[in-house]
Every structure is written in C-alpha cells, then in structure tokens.
C-alpha cells in the first residue's frame, strides 16, 4: 500500500488558510498555491536517491553525494494542477512537465481523458501528479490510469486539500501510489465540493468565478 502523508508544516498551514478564506483574490490565491507547492516539493522529494561522486574541494579530494536515479516529471491535471507546477520547478528545475486533461461526463459521471501530452520517457521517470483538490478521486484515478497505460510505474500524487472519500478511493484504485496533501478535510458535500475546502480551485486560480 502506498503511504499517505499530510505535510502540515506551520508555513504550509498558514498559506492553506489564505487559500480557504473567501476574501483572498486571484493574485494572492495563485501566489499561495505556488508557495505551498514549492514547500511541499521539499518533502515529496525527500526520498530521492543519492549516489557518491568524487570531487575536489580547494583543499582535498573527497567523496560526496549527488542526486542519482530517476529523473522527475511533473504532471498537472488540467486545469487547476497548472497552479502547482512552477512552485515545484523552483526546487527541481530540470523536471519535465507533462499534461493530462480530464473532464467529468455529466451522464455517466465518469472522468474522461480529453488531452494528454507526456515526456517520451515517462517509464524511466519519477512522476509527481499534481492537482490541488482530491475530492471524489475520480480524475486522479483516471489520470494515473492513463499514465500507467503509457508505461509509468513510479508515481506520487500531490494535492493541497484532500477529502477522506478521495483518499480512500485513490488508495484502493492505485495502492502503489504515495499520496501527499497539505490538509485532510472533513468530507464532500452533495455536489462533490470538499468541506470546509476552498471552493473551486481552478476558478479561484484563474479568476473565472
Ligand atoms: N474541485 C475543486 O476545485 N474544489 C472542490 O471542493 C472539489 C473539487
């Protein structure tokens, strides 16, 4: 079973409260999402493998560590996931970025993939799939399914606010995927919004309210 992590550093909690506040406007909301993603990237990348490298300091030869192993790709789920990309790139600037677009079919209520564009070597990369909200889990589950179908095998899912229902559904569908969130909220309402939540993350990020 993948691990479930709540990254509740005080700086992150402070910024999540800014997101939740309905008085926060688009500019401040976007900045806070970006900063939270940057802070989370520090924890999400904690288990990145290192390898020995021999270097010379101005004084002596020495064996030290540098990053080894899998390269990273960030995969935002469109559209709200886009808000988290730049913050993670601040810490991992060499990461590639792939995109997955999902919409919900109003009749079947299933998540349907409408756009996918990925780095060609996703099978060799550690993927960070990002979406600020993990609500029912339907789009995360479908996006990860789409990535696995194309060869991805090493996936972490990173969100900012998660509902228990979404965490359970995602863990059941993809038990190999570690889930990282900044906050675990109470529940979903009858329209699929997270409570207390922060409203529609995409609308608040892009000012389309
Ligand atoms: N997506 C959002 O943007 N907000 C929610 O509360 C649930 C899903």
TrEMBL record:
Domain Phosphoribosyltransferase: 6-208
Entry EC number(s): 2.4.2.9
UniProt keyword list: Allosteric enzyme, Glycosyltransferase, GTP-binding, Magnesium, Nucleotide-binding, Transferase
RNA-binding among keywords: no
Gene3D superfamilies in the record: 3.40.50.2020
Name of the gene encoding the protein in the UniProt record: upp
Protein name: Uracil phosphoribosyltransferase
UniProt-annotated binding residues for uracil: 194, 199-201
Pathway this chain belongs to: Pyrimidine metabolism; UMP biosynthesis via salvage pathway; UMP from uracil: step 1/1
Lineage of the organism: Bacteria, Bacillati, Bacillota, Bacilli, Lactobacillales
Activity control: Allosterically activated by GTP.
Biological function: Catalyzes the conversion of uracil and 5-phospho-alpha-D-ribose 1-diphosphate (PRPP) to UMP and diphosphate.
Chemical reaction(s) catalysed: UMP + diphosphate = 5-phospho-alpha-D-ribose 1-diphosphate + uracil
Cofactor note: Binds 1 Mg(2+) ion per subunit. The magnesium is bound as Mg-PRPP.
Family: Belongs to the UPRTase family.
One GO molecular-function entry: uracil phosphoribosyltransferase activity
Residue positions binding 5-phospho-alpha-D-ribose 1-diphosphate: 79, 104, 131-139, 200
Enzyme class: transferase
Any Pfam family matching the protein: UPRTase
Cofactor names: Mg(2+)
């Amino acid at each position: 079973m993948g691990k479930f992590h709540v990254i509740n550093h005080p700086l992150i909690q402070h910024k999540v409260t800014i997101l939740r506040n309905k008085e926060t406007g688009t500019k401040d909301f976007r900045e806070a999402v970006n900063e939270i993603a940057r802070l989370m990237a520090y924890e999400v990348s904690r288990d990145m493998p290192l390898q020995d490298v021999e270097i010379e300091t101005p004084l002596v030869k020495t064996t030290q560590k540098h990053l080894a192993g899998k390269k990273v790709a960030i995969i935002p789920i469109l559209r709200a996931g886009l808000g988290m990309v730049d913050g993670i790139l601040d810490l991992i600037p060499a990461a590639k970025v792939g995109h997955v677009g999902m919409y919900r079919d109003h009749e079947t209520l299933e998540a349907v993939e409408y756009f996918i564009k990925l780095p060609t070597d996703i099978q060799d990369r550690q993927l960070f799939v990002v979406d600020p909200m993990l609500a029912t889990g339907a789009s995360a589950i479908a996006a990860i399914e789409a990535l696995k179908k194309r060869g991805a095998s090493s996936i972490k899912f990173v969100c900012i606010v998660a509902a228990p229902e979404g965490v359970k559904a995602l863990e059941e569908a993809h038990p190999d995927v570690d889930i990282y969130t900044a906050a675990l909220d109470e529940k979903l309402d009858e329209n699929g919004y997270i409570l207390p939540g922060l409203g529609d993350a995409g609308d608040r990020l892009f000012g389309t309210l």
